[in-house]
Amino acid sequence: MEQIITVILPIFMILSAGYLSIHLKMLDRSHIQAISQFIIKIALPAFLLHALSTRPFAEIWQAPYFFAYLLGSLILFFSTFLLYRKFFQLPQTQASVMGFGGSMSNTGFIGTAVLTLLIGQAAVPYLAMTLMIENIIMLTLMLVLAETGLNQDKSLTELCYSSFKNISKNPVILSIIFGLMGSMLSIQWPEAVAFSLKSLAATASPLAIFVIGASLAGLDLKQIGQDVAIMCSIKLVLMPVVIGLAIYMMPLTTSQMLYAGVILAALPMASAFGIYGQIYGIPERSAAPVMVSTVLSLLVIAAILHFVPSPF
Predict the structure, then answer these.
(1) Helix, strand or coil for residue 187?
(2) Could you tell me what percent of the chain has a pLDDT over 90?
(3) 275-312: b or e for each residue (b if 16 or more CB lie within 10 Å)?
(4) Maximal CA-CA distance, the chain
């Protein structure tokens, strides 16, 4: 219970501060968008670059976790994709976005905060590997399927090239790549550089939670319907189970990998789900599940912390 209070209460308080900042008109939504850009392009990359480059590479790269989490994510993606493609008769483009929503967590924002609060710097390898899976493999898969549904005249090679070109400019991915290179080369940052990176990195978690809280101020309860119930059930119930089983059954995995993987899988949907839902024409199916899952995930994580002892 003490661990639940230690982790959940600060998150709830910062979420509330973000919510009230918009609800009481202390900040405009344009301010929140600017803060989001700062997190994604500066604070989170600084956190990953410093944390990865200052740890031994053998400690960072844990292949059993990577492949188990990837397998579970792919199972969830295609299961959700087929559910909406075959049962709900959505076009391929929209169904691929729904598959993305059911298989990708808000690792960059909430995951960084929750897992570091729980296990400290031991969270870094799991965050980095999960972000690689989500931002390189799962995002590319969704974009290729979505664009294939819209652009029948373009070849698969052209679509893959376009997707990887966009991803290669992602500051989070670049920070992971350079961080891993620094780890392999055992780079020692000058004190001034290390201090700057740590200072920027320290802002990532609290600001990320603040932004999520601010986004909740736009939640319209009238939007809650069948899609919200289905997507939240897939993301918050099915995903932790599938990821947990994949890690448990994968050879050479550890209890630490299982614990970290289940926590990350129980996070709310990525905010990118709502963004791509708007881009590909299903804003009503994507926005509300993101908001509702953000609230419900705190209950799911609290339940996991209560019933699953930490191996760290």
Answers:
(1) coil
(2) 33
(3) ebbeebebeebbbbbbbbbbebbbebbbebbeeeeeee
(4) 57
Kindly tell me if the per-residue pLDDT of 70 is higher than 90: yes
Q: Map tokens 């448990």 to a residue.
A: 248
- Which pLDDT band holds residue 44 (cuts at 50, 70, 90)? confident
Give one DSSP letter per residue of the chain, joined into a string. -HHHHHHHHHHHHHHHHHHHHHHTTSS-HHHHHHHHHHIIIIIHHHHHHHHHHTS-HHHH--HHHHHHHHHHHHHHHHHHHHIIIIIS---HHHHHHHHHHTT-B-IIIIIHHHHHHHHGGGGHHHHHHHHHIIIIIIHHHHHHHHHHHH-TTS-HHHHHHHHHHHHTT-HHHHHHHHHHHHHHTT----HHHHHHHHHHHTTHHHHHHHHHHHHHTT--GGG-SHHHHHHHHIIIIIHHHHHHHHHHHSTT--HHHHHHHHHHHTSPBPHHHHHHHHHTT-HHHHHHHHHHHHHHHHHHHHHHHHHS----
Q: What is the token pair recorded at 182? A: 């620094």
Is there a contact between 76 and 102 (Cβ–Cβ < 8 Å)?
Answer: yes
3-class SS of residue 55: coil
Q: What gap in Å lies between CA 52 and CA 183, rounded to an integer? A: 6
74 burial (CB, 10 Å; 0-12 / 13-18 / 19+) is middle
Give the pair of three-digit tokens for residue 185.
């080369």
Highest average pLDDT, of 3-7, 141-145, 159-163, 245-249, comes from 245-249
Query: For the chain, how far is it from start to end, CA to CA, in angstroms?
Result: 17
H or E element in which residue 236 lies:
none
Which residue carries 């740590």 as its tokens?
198
Which of 245, 295, 297 lies closest to 267 in space, CA to CA? 297
